[in-house]
Specification:
Blueprint: H1 6-13, E1 16-21, H2 24-27, H3 41-44, H4 47-50, H5 53-58, H6 60-75, H7 81-89, E2 95-100, H8 106-109, E3 116-117, E4 120-127, E5 162-166, H9 175-186, E6 190-194, H10 205-212, E7 216-221, E8 231-236, H11 239-251
Parallel strand pairs: 1-2, 1-6, 2-3, 6-7, 7-8
Antiparallel strand pairs: 4-5
Helix pairs in contact: 1-11, 7-11, 9-10
The protein binds ligand BJW and zinc ion.
Ligand BJW binds at residues 22-24, 27-28, 33-36, 40, 51, 101, 103, 119, 166-172, 195-197, 199-202, 220-223, 238-239.
């Protein structure tokens, strides 16, 4: 890919970089996105029946089974070249803040630390009634097939049903995480927005906050959408191809690769 020559130079010069990721960054690991037309989860499953507190109240077995099926997929997957490139980028810039909307742990498994998870994590379930954390067993879950119901575990404190530790529609994002993410966006020099459709709020405001604060924003996506304000670069393509190339161009790195 041919980059606007100003971009690698901007990345080299940036003191504070934010990387903001969505489901597209994990797509090349085999984790489905939400809104891609044919393969996205919401093209096959009804978000209202699976990703809201009311859905869990109505049918906890359906919801728990679906999330355990997704956790199984995650356990069988590996970070891809995009996750590795982002972890590598942190070694090249003075300060990098990684904000993700993803509930997987692929950034951490690639070596990124202090990841701000705006929408929670598949690995940290908690009690629906009293919020007590629930420790998942070390063993992989018992093979919940797609669409198979599974009874949620019970809370050891109050006996309530255990729910996935993710942020559903209509729920507040974790306030300290959101505050840290918004502050990092408002104070960065350059923000890379990778693999997100930018339709879910309040997360979608993050690139706009960066632009309005004077930072440059780079969009990495096979179907990129610029916001049309400020200094933007649009890099059409797969994150696992574009990000390693950008790093090579900016820092002359060897091919960023997994282990
Ligand atoms: C690639 C690629 C490759 C593919 N390389 N790229 C303001 C306006 C309108 C609505 C609202 C608003 N404020 C709040 C709302 C309501 C709602 C909302 O935003 N709805 C919109 C959908 C209309 N927001 C909420 O409800 C939020 N809560 C809230 O605001 O609370 C306020 C409140 C106030 C008072 C009291 C209480 C509350 C919560 C939102 C929670 C979102 N949860 C989910 C599910 C998480 C759990 C789970 O995993 O099941 O989070 S929904 C889903 O969407 C998930 C994602 O994190 C999120 C974002 O999706 P993402 O990551 O962008 O994925 P896709 O699929 O959309 O896009 C993938 C992109 O990748 C595409 O562009 C591809 O092209 C690209 N791609 N391959 C690079 N290889
Ligand atoms: Zn409880």
């Amino acid at each position: 890919m041919k980059f606007d020559q100003a971009l690698p130079a901007q990345l080299r010069a940036a003191q504070r970089v934010v990387v903001f990721t969505g489901a597209g960054v994990s797509a090349e690991s085999g984790i489905p996105t939400f809104r891609d037309a044919l393969t996205g989860l919401w093209s096959r499953f009804d978000a209202a029946r699976l990703a809201t507190p009311d859905a869990f109240i109505d049918d906890p077995e359906l919801v728990w089974g679906w999330y355990e099926w997704r956790r199984m997929q995650l356990l069988a997957s590996q970070p891809n070249l995009a996750h590795w490139a982002i972890a590598q980028l942190a070694q090249h810039v003075p300060k990098l803040t990684l904000i993700t909307q993803n509930v997987d742990d692929l950034h951490e498994r690639a070596g990124s630390t202090k990841v701000l998870h705006l929408h929670g994590s598949l690995q940290q379930p908690r009690c629906f009634d009293c919020n007590e954390d629930y420790s998942l067993p070390d063993a992989a879950p018992q093979e919940p097939a797609e669409g198979r119901r599974l009874a949620p575990p019970r809370c050891s404190l109050c006996g309530g049903a255990v729910r996935p530790g993710v942020v559903w529609f209509g729920e507040s994002l974790p306030v300290p995480v959101m505050d840290a993410a918004f502050a990092a966006a408002a104070n960065c020099d350059l923000l890379l927005s990778v693999g997100t459709s930018g339709v879910v709020h309040p997360a979608a405001q993050i690139p706009e906050i960066a632009l309005r604060s004077g930072a440059g924003v780079v969009h990495v996506n096979p179907e990129p959408k610029a916001l049309g304000i400020g200094r933007e670069w649009v890099l059409p393509g797969l994150a696992g191809q574009v990000l390693p190339e950008l790093l090579r161009e900016a820092f002359n790195t060897a091919k960023a690769g997994g282990k």
